[in-house]
């Protein structure tokens, strides 16, 4: 077995083990089990009535109910990534296990992605159940012409969430104020991603920021295949843009993780206190 294959197998095993640990850790707290199914429901209702109060009967070529339904799904995917994969190294630091992480031969990237995948597995399934119930209650009509396009759009959006979490894993530690940084960027990301407001409705300067933000392309693709019957060819431009930006974010994330180790070596400690 070649070294490359052995390293890949080892990384996959680390990723799977980390994902399982993150799932067990999350499900151990009742508040987490209750909070995550309620979060999309309450947020959706508040946004839905906001559009109702504003007198909007169409949003982004569809109804507010349908537009927000897909947006809430994307929001849950993003939130689970930012508060798990993005916090992976910070969580290890807080738990006092960062020494073991950096001194072990385990891939740092596999650990970060494991955190993200574990949280996404736990949080996205309840969100899909809630979203299905909302769709039935509000009479949302889905128009799916290409099931393969739905799968590609979902995987592309998942890739964007994982890429962002990978980038933030190192950034959070280097700021020394991970919680403040996460809260600072969360609302702007909701806005620029097209989760709650169509990107076309934003001022021109903000549209440029949204264009380079990968999740906005993923949201466009997912809404297209679910709500307007878009085919794989029709979303290919958005998917390619999303993949390219996600690769750039992954490379930047790898650089930041290396900076974390470099800073630790210069400081003579791995505790970052």
Secondary-structure map:
Layout: H1 3-27, H2 30-53, H3 64-82, H4 88-95, H5 98-103, H6 108-138, H7 147-175, H8 178-192, H9 204-212, H10 214-227, H11 232-267
In short:
This protein is an all-alpha fold and 273 residues long.
Give an overview in words.
The chain has 273 residues and is mostly helical. The protein has one domain. The protein contains eleven helices and no strands. α2 packs antiparallel against α3, α3 packs antiparallel against α6 and α7 packs antiparallel against α8.
Give structural attributes.
273 residues, mainly alpha, 11 helices, globular
Distance between the termini: 42 Å
Coarse shape: globular
Overall pLDDT metric? 79
Estimate what percentage of residues fall within beta strands. Answer: under 5%
State the major sheet.
Answer: none
Number of extended strands: 0
Give me the number of helical elements. Answer: 11
Give the count of structural domains.
Answer: 1
- Which regions have little confidence, pLDDT < 50, spanning 5+ residues? none
The SSE order reads HHHHHHHHHHH
The rounded Rg comes to 19 Å
Overall helicity: over 70%
Structural class: mainly alpha
Oligomer category:
single chain
């Amino acid at each position: 077995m070649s070294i490359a294959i052995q390293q890949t197998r080892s990384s996959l095993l680390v990723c799977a083990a980390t994902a399982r640990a993150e799932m067990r850790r999350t499900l151990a707290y009742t508040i987490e089990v209750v909070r995550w199914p309620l979060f999309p429901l309450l947020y959706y209702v508040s946004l839905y009535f906001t559009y109702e109060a504003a007198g909007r009967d169409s949003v982004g070529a569809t109804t507010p109910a349908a537009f927000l339904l897909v947006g809430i799904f994307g929001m849950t995917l993003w939130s689970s990534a930012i508060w798990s994969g993005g916090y992976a190294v910070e969580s290890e630091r807080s738990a006092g296990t960062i020494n073991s992480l950096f001194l072990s031969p385990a891939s740092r990237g596999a650990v970060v992605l494991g955190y993200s995948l574990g949280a996404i597995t736990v949080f996205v399934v309840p969100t899909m159940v809630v979203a299905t119930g909302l769709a039935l209650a509000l009479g949302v009509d889905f128009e799916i012409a290409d099931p393969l396009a739905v799968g590609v759009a979902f995987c592309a959006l998942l890739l964007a969430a994982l890429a962002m979490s990978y980038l933030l894993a190192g950034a959070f530690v280097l700021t020394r104020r991970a919680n403040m940084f996460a809260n600072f960027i969360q609302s702007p990301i909701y806005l620029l991603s097209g989760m709650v407001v169509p990107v076309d409705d934003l001022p021109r300067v903000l549209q440029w920021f949204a264009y380079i933000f990968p999740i906005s392309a993923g949201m466009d693709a997912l809404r297209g295949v679910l709500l307007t019957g878009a085919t794989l060819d029709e979303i290919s431009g958005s998917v390619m843009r999303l993949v390219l930006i996600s690769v750039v974010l992954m490379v930047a994330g790898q650089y930041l993780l290396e900076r974390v180790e470099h800073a630790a070596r210069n400081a003579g400690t791995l505790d970052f206190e």
